[in-house]
Automatic annotation (TrEMBL):
Any one GO biological process: phenol-containing compound biosynthetic process
Organism lineage string: Eukaryota, Metazoa, Spiralia, Lophotrochozoa, Mollusca
Protein name in UniProt: Biopterin-dependent aromatic amino acid hydroxylase family profile domain-containing protein
SUPFAM superfamilies in the cross-refs: ACT-like, Aromatic aminoacid monoxygenases, catalytic and oligomerization domains
Database matches in PANTHER family: AROMATIC AMINO ACID HYDROXYLASE, TYROSINE 3-MONOOXYGENASE
The species this protein was found in: Elysia crispata (lettuce slug)
GO MF annotations in UniProt: iron ion binding; tyrosine 3-monooxygenase activity
């Protein structure tokens, strides 16, 4: 797996620059972020290939070949040659004319002293020509008395490496905080765009996440009266729909949250208190985030039973709608479901399945996350109920989810993973699972079909991901399973013992 070395740092720097230039990483959904990340990584790989072309010639000079100009039609080819001169650089102008006379475009040229004692100089040239003239270029150039040799430099694909993955829960400190989704400073249609005080408040709360490290207590946020009023508005309206629209798991845990964790309509709960509650129920915990990680980093956090959670509150001017996840969405939608053991297991297995997979697979897993964890439906006594956090934290989405306006499809991971989604209006298509057990079985079958160069398991005692790539690792897993099986057999024998 790729460590956080120079290459990884270069990729991150490129992604940030590419994001700023192309307006990326401000998408409203995890899927949009995953798609943009795929594009950014492909552009980075193209840049690395262009750099690798010149490595054998002038890596020490730091040469970076330019891009093929957009003016050239699709049937033109770009390639690189190494030209060895007979008479030194005094013949450079004539050499250039040799190529130009053959209708070859020179997009870059660079000279160096030859490494051979027989010749004085060599030229590295980037050339562009029509496809049908490609084969004649080197042949024609070699016939010139000014040129001793022409070598075509073949493009080398950069060595494919597995993506960096966190191996311990503390490695989540390395997850990349990027520009927050639908940033109020930058998006003119954000409800807080014209509200300077709101923007300052968002920054104040975001700084908590930027400074947070694993093992620290989640800092307390003193929410304002306006923020608590926004929470109350949403809380009261959603509680009206929960009995008829929410799944039984959500209803049961929500009641427990009110009894044990201080959930009430008057004030916003603190993440530290809620995180401790989750740890007692399922081992999940919350971690403050400024608003956005890459899709890969966000999903990887689930592998450690960690949910990246925002602390800021949507703008009070539009309490029924938030263009990005806020603490109301996280606390009313995600937290109750993550406190259910079966659903928590599903969320963690989804996170483990994403470790080290390709960018294309990250897009698919992000889409599966969207149509399950965010907007999933389940069957309950022959009726449809909502278990997705996106529905359970929005009055409009929750009412819409069980209405005739929605097309409901059976959950099938290969199909669901490529379903187009909608993020600027109420969801028109939702997927229903027969049960959480059935959802788990289907997801495990799908994960088994994904290509990955290694397998992983999670060690809850050390909060670490173990790579299963050698016999010793397998023996450790087998030993743990044997202990569990022995305990199970012992208990079953005791139950079956006659009284």
């Amino acid at each position: 797996m790729e460590v956080l070395n120079g290459t990884a740092k270069k990729r991150l720097a490129f992604q940030k620059t590419f994001s700023q230039e192309h307006g990326g990483w401000r998408r409203k959904t995890l899927i949009g972020d995953a798609k943009f990340e795929t594009v950014a990584n492909k552009e980075f790989q193209k840049q690395e290939r262009r750099l690798s072309k010149a490595d054998s010639f002038c890596a020490e000079e730091g040469f970076a070949p330019g891009l093929l100009p957009d003016a050239f039609p699709d049937d033109y080819l770009a390639f690189n040659v190494l030209v060895t001169l007979r008479e030194g650089l005094v013949s450079l102008a004539k050499v250039i004319r040799v190529f130009e006379n053959g209708k070859i475009f020179i997009t870059h040229i660079e000279s160096r002293k030859s490494r051979s004692e027989k010749e004085q100089h060599q030229l590295f040239m980037q050339l562009v020509c029509p496809h049908n003239a490609y084969e004649n270029v080197c042949c024609a150039a070699r016939q010139s008395p000014l040129i001793r040799d022409v070598t075509l430099l073949e493009e080398k694909e950069p060595e494919k490496k597995d993506h960096w993955i966190p191996l311990h829960i503390s490695d989540l400190d390395r997850c990349t905080h990027l520009i927050t989704k639908f940033e109020p400073d930058l998006d003119y249609d954000h409800p807080g765009f014209a509200d300077k005080n709101y923007r300052l408040r968002r920054k104040e709360i975001a700084d908590i996440a930027f400074d947070y490290k694993h093992g620290q207590k989640i800092p307390t946020v003193e929410y304002t009266d306006e923020e608590n009023a926004t929470w109350q508005h949403v809380y009261v309206r959603l509680k009206e729909l929960f009995p008829t629209h929410a799944c039984k798991e959500h209803i049961q845990v929500f009641a427990t949250l009110e009894e044990e964790c201080g959930f009430c309509e008057q004030r916003i709960p603190q993440l530290e208190d809620v995180s401790n509650f989750l740890k007692r129920k399922t081992g999940f915990q919350l971690r403050p985030v400024a608003g956005l990680l890459t899709a890969r980093d966000f999903l990887a956090s689930l592998a450690f039973r960690t949910f990246q959670c925002t602390q800021y509150v949507r703008h009070g001017g539009k309490p029924d709608h938030s263009p990005e996840p806020d603490c109301i969405h996280e606390l009313l939608g995600h937290v109750p479901m993550l406190a259910d053991p079966k659903f928590a297991q599903f969320a963690q297995e989804l996170g483990l399945a994403t470790l080290g997979v390709s960018d294309e697979d990250i897009e698919k897993f992000a889409t599966l996350f969207w149509f399950t964890v965010e907007f999933g439906l389940c069957k309950e006594n022959g009726q449809l109920k909502a278990y997705g956090a996106g529905s359970l934290s929005s009055y409009g989405e929750l009412a819409n989810s069980l209405s005739e306006n929605v097309t409901v499809k059976p959950f099938d991971p290969p199909t669901t993973a490529v379903q187009e989604y909608k993020d600027d209006d109420l969801q028109p298509i939702l997927f229903v699972v027969e049960s959480f057990d059935d959802m788990m079985v289907k997801m495990r079958q799908y994960v088994a079909s994904i290509e990955r160069s290694f397998d992983v398991t999670y060690d809850p005692y050390t909060q670490s991901v173990k790579i299963l790539d050698h016999n010793a690792a397998l023996e450790g897993v087998a030993h743990g399973l044997q202990n569990d099986v022995d305990t199970l057999i012992h208990v079953m024998n005791r139950f079956n013992k006659p009284v």
